[in-house]
Amino acid sequence: MVDADINDQAGTTSSRGDARSGTNSLHPFQLLKRLMPRGLYARSLIIIVAPMVLLQFVVSYVFLERHWQLVTERLSAKTVAEIALLLSEYEEDPTPLHGTRIAARANENLGLPVAFLDGEVLPDAPSSSTGLLADSLGDELRQRVSRPFWFNTDRYTQYVDIRIAYNGGVMRVLSPASHVYASNSHIFLVWMFGTSVVLIIVAIIFLRNQIRPIERLATAAESFGMGRDVPSYRPQGASEVRRAAQAFMEMRARIQRQIEQRTAMLAGVSHDLRTPLTRFKLQLAMLGDGPEIDELRADIYEMERMLDDYLEFARGHQGEASEETDLAELIDEIRTDALRKGHDVRLELHGDLVLPLRRNAFKRCLTNVVDNAGKYAAHVWVTAIRDVEADGHGGSIDIFVDDDGKGIPEEQLEEVFRPFYRLDAARNLDKGGTGLGLAIARDIARGHGGDITLARSPMGGLRAVIHLPV
Ligand code: ADP
């Protein structure tokens, strides 16, 4: 039954989560906000990397589309002009000897291997037709050489095969690819990509160093909120972070001073009240016996007990340092104590229940709640559940203390946490409490960054839930 109810709670949480994650009616800006990573580190990286990637896309596009095309066009125009010149030169005296001489000069001065092949014809296969080079070469040949031509840009990787028909033969040119084509422009992209990778790595290293002090400050503030000491914390990093850290440390010191002041004052008051009380006791002892005297004695006894509780409440738990504690073990100890007092306590423990706690203080907190349940009910169920967060660390532990007693009326579930507030006197079932048990328990739970809440238990009585962040 406990389980069913706990699952029910989990269900409520997740359905609330679903409702929040609905994206139907989201403004695009809100959607972008939701898609952004939550961590400062990832966000800063995006702020640096996104413009860089965008810039690269724009530059690559402009470069490839405009620059590359223009360079290729100019190079092929120049090569075709050279070829046209050589051909017209050859045609003035179309003898093999002249052809050989022109070929030698072209090779030597232009770096262009040329051959005039009498009797040859153009290949049957069509010219290359795809790609930037094929386009611009085709255009240029068509414009500058008014003869049938054929070319192939793919067969050789280093050369472009260009053939032009003349009367009685074919002029064959094996133009080096670099003459017609901006072929090594990918180097530009490699450089651009390479330098951005280096920049990103540098950015990552710098960002890590900038963000680490913020993470440390957050962890220190969290630990302090959970009652854990962080003696090694020092302000570090950029001046704004240092300022925040300094302010946090001063605030922490102020809070600690206030707690100490409160404790000292309350302890002083309780202690001072003890002296007259001891005098009363002595005087009463001398007065002898009688029904009125017995009543007075009982009152004084009660006042003393209240003062003891109060003193303990006032003293708090500040002195104790928090240490790794296995809650399963602690709960088992409390159960053994409760069994000794004659209470029937059953346990149900789920998951890893180890966390830093002020052990004695927390034992007091849980004992108060379990003892209450034992006092007011026949059966007590203690269930502890570890709730791990989606990212695998942190999360929280919930301890449910259920009983099958009379419970507490709905409207008084908060009231009973007030110091010295008791229902027993009004309900005529005085169990000898002083009304501080729950106040102390809540104080301790809050000192650990958690809280205690009360509700109706599925077992019929009261359910106390102690929530602890891990
Ligand atoms: P006390 O020292 O009197 O037990 P607490 O602060 O622990 O003081 O509790 C305050 C009041 O809440 C008690 O007087 C009691 O009437 C009521 N109470 C606490 N726990 C339970 C419980 N498990 N079932 C019913 N009543 C409870």
Strand order of the largest sheet: 6-8-9-11-10
Q: How many helical elements?
A: 13
- Terminal-residue CA separation: 26 Å
The assigned CATH architecture of the largest domain is 2-Layer Sandwich
Briefly note the structural class of the backbone: alpha+beta
**Bound compounds:** adenosine-5'-diphosphate
CATH fold topology of the largest domain: Beta-Lactamase
Approximately how much beta-strand content do the residues carry? Answer: 15-25%
What is the radius of gyration computed over CA atoms, rounded to a whole number of angstroms?
A: 44 Å
Largest sheet: 5 strands, mixed
Number of domains: 3
Give unreliable regions as ranges.
1-23
**How much helicity do the residues have?**
55-70%
Q: CATH H level of the largest domain: which superfamily?
A: Sensor histidine kinase RisS, periplasmic domain
What is the element string, with H for helices and E for strands? HHHHEHEEEHHHHEHEEHEEHHEE
Please tell me what the overall shape is.
Answer: rod-shaped
CATH class of the largest domain: Alpha Beta
Give the total of beta strands. 11
Average pLDDT metric: 84
Structural notes for this entry:
The protein is an alpha+beta fold. It folds into three domains: 34-225, 2-Layer Sandwich (Beta-Lactamase), CATH 3.30.450; 239-313, Orthogonal Bundle (Helix Hairpins), CATH 1.10.287; 322-469, 2-Layer Sandwich (Heat Shock Protein 90). It contains 13 helices and eleven strands. It has helices spanning 2-21, 28-35, 40-92, 96-110, 132-144, 177-180, 186-225, 239-287, 291-315, 327-340, 359-376, 424-427, 437-447; strands at 114-118, 149-152, 159-166, 169-176, 323-326, 344-350, 354-357, 379-387, 396-403, 451-456, 462-469. The protein has a five-stranded mixed beta sheet, with helices on one face. A four-stranded antiparallel beta sheet has the order 1-4-3-2. Strands 5-7 form a two-stranded antiparallel ribbon. Helix 3 (40-92) packs parallel to helix 5, helix 7 (186-225) packs parallel to helix 8 (239-287) and helix 8 (239-287) runs antiparallel to helix 9. The chain is rod-shaped and about 155 Å long. The structure holds adenosine-5'-diphosphate (ADP).
